[in-house]
Structure formats: structure tokens, C-alpha cells
Design brief:
- About 35% of the residues lie in helices and about 20% in strands.
- The strands form 4 sheets. A 6-stranded parallel sheet has the order 2-1-3-4-5-6, sandwiched between helices. A 6-stranded parallel sheet has the order 7-10-11-12-13-14.
- Helix 8 runs parallel beside helix 9 and helix 13 runs parallel beside helix 14.
- The model has no long low-confidence stretch (mean pLDDT about 95).
- Bound molecules: iron/sulfur cluster.
Length: about 450
Amino acid sequence: MKETVCLVSLGCPKNLVDSEVILGLLSEEGHFLTTDPSKGEVIIVNTCSFIKDASQEAIETILRLTPYKREGRCRLLIVSGCLPQRYGKILEKELPEVDLFVGTGSFHKIPHLITQKRKRKSFLSGQTFLYNDQTPRILSTPPSTAYLKIAEGCSRTCTFCTVPKIRGPYRSRRIPSILKEAKRLADQGARELTLIAQDTTAYGEDLRDGTSLEGLLKGLVRVEGLRWIRILYAYPSSARFTESLLELISREEKICPYLDLPIQHIDDQILRRMGRRSKGREIQDLIGKIRTFIPEIALRTSLIVGFPGENESQFNALLHFVEEAQFDHLGAFQYSPEEGTPAFRLSNPVPEEVKEERLRILMEAQKKISLKKYRRMVGRKAEVLVEGMDSERTVLRGRIQTQAPEIDGCVFLKGKARPGDWVKALITQALPYDLVGKIQRILP
Ligand code: SF4
């Protein structure tokens, strides 16, 4: 029987790709897709559960959708992804309205599970399913941009992180498969590909055959039609950023001068307690090395404030580092103790109000840095990828090469263009996290 299915995707781009694969598999089986939950005979919530807030958001979303089962057309409510993988069968009791729980290792079986008679409610087998170029996928991002997942899982042992437990060890896709998918995406109209994995710089190591991020990038720049290739989630390890990799990023026009280095902290003691491999000095040296090879690079990072035992002077060291390093984009989070992680048992928790205050101070410092950097761009011309209207539907919005989709700011544009156009724009104004520009011409 063919069903009308509504899928709600939560969490990060890695989860979004899983959702796109679920949609592709459902469509291939002949099911109909809708974005309107009131029309869904089957509703799927593909969840994130990386931290407490994400689990909370997932549960709230599920509870918000359960009335459709009682009052609407919905006959099957499915919860997939990280939440069931992390919490297991306990959810069957906590969320009795849910008919099926499908973990990260089994989400590719959803089309089959929808139509079959099932004796159990939870399908939570081991490792996360890793798709390949043959796997159908329906993109949910604007047509000119797509994520490309190059690996799954993580083999690192960061003490605060639930990902290795939920998603299993690191597993890279093969280069030919990634290149075939990149070509298919480019043929469908994608001009920007954003490479994602839990750690993109570890790409290929598990294959033990010389496969590397550098080799993959060399193949990707030859894919016709692509204009921007962007690297997210690059673990800040100096050994991984070889000179030849940095030279390649610097030399190849298609590879965005952009790197996302989630460094988490700068204090050695905290880094050690976090289970991070790099020391503060190495991180600083790496940033210097990257900027020497690629002077125009835009750097993004993410940081955790209030890790257990973080004292005033360690936080001040982090703040001082942020002021010195001058990141282009920065995301900071209050430490959230996650059950099942080694850090959960650490002593000396930082009080919530102190965490909040540290986050506020850090983001205030970054706001000034971001504004200062954007002010330098006023009066310059930039190539902008137009993505559509802004949320108030008054002006167009787009991104320059150093703004990643969704996580960074954007350029608000005056003038006429269509989504997917590349335009030359004059930057006329800087806001703390966004730019304002005037379209001068549409680029070929
Ligand atoms: S590198 Fe560390 S923080 Fe990132 S996914 Fe792996 S274990 Fe988690």
C-alpha cells in the first residue's frame, strides 16, 4: 500500500542528509511525500540527540505531532535517528503514542517497515547506515546547494560527546562513490557542495589505502558545474592539515577559502579533560599555519564554556584567545552534561548562571569582531549566491563564499535576481553578523 508520508527533520546537516535519504527511499518505493503533517498518513520525526536541548526539542516535536494521530489522517508515527539510538527501548514506555522507533543503523529500512506487519516496536541495530551513490536521495536544501556526507561516525574519544556511541566508529565512503554522487548533484543543479562528516579531516584514514581528503578534493574540483566546495567540521589537528592540503585549498578557486575548526577550548587542562588531542599552543600554531598558506581564509569555530572545572582564569584565557584569533564565525555552547559520556562523572560542575554569563561575554566579544570584519567589506564587490527572499519577504538574501549555509550570516540584497542566480553585488552596509548589498549584475 502506498502512503502519504510527512517527514520532520531535526538537528544538524548530517541528520538532514539522513532525512533526504529516507525521503529518496520512500519516493522510490512509490510513497507520496508531503510537508503538511495534517495530510500525512505516516509521520516520521528524524531526531537529533547530541545534547540535552536537542533531545528536548525532539520530544517536544513528537508531542506536538501526536494529535495528528488521534485527530488526523495519521495511522503511523515513527521516530527515527539519534534519539531512539541513544535511549533505546525506554522510549517505548515514555512515548506510547509512537508506533515505531528506528535507530541510526536501520533508518534505510523505514519504507519496508511501513508496509510490513511488525512484531516489535524498536529497530535499533548497531552502526549507522552509510549511503552511497546508488542510494536515492531527495534534496531539501535550495536547489543550488547540497550537503555531501563523506563519512559517518567518529572514532575519537572526546569525553563530552555522545556521537561515537550513537553513530559508531568512523567509516569513510569511497572516493569514486562520492564523485559519482557529486556529479549527479551538479547535474541536478547544485553549484555549491558542502562536505560534512563528524570529522572531515579524518576522511580516508579508516580505509588504510591512501584515501585522503586531499585526494577527494582533487577529484571534486574536476566535477563540471560546481562553483563552490566547502569543508565543515575539520578537527584541528596539525598533522591532518598538511602543506599540500593547504596549498590545494589556496590554489583551487572552487574550494572556498573557508574552514570550520571546532576547537572547543584553548586551555590545556580543559582540553585534556575534554579528551581532545591538541594542546592550546598547537591550535594557535595551526591557525597561524592556515593563515600563512591561505591569507584570505575565513575561519569558523565552536567552543564550549563551563566545562566541569573551568575556572575564571581558564575562561579568561579562552576569551583572550578569541579576541586574538579573530574568527570570522563562532558558535559557543554552554556545557551540557550528557549521561553515558565520561565527562558526565567529572567533579566541579560550573553553576548554570556562571555558564550563561561566560557565554554572554564570549558572544559579545565575537559580535564586535564580526562587525569589525564585515565593516572592512563595505564598498567592496562580492560574488553572491542568491538563495531566495529573507524571512520577512522584503528583500533577497544570499551568501558570499565565506558564509556557509544555515550556520553563518547572509547578505541581504537590494535589486532583482532569482534564487540560484550568482550576482556581483556592492556591499553597502555591515550588520553584526550579516551584510547588506546592492546587486550590480547577474553573473553567467
Ligand atoms: S571529534 Fe569529538 S566532538 Fe566531534 S564527533 Fe567525534 S567525539 Fe564528538
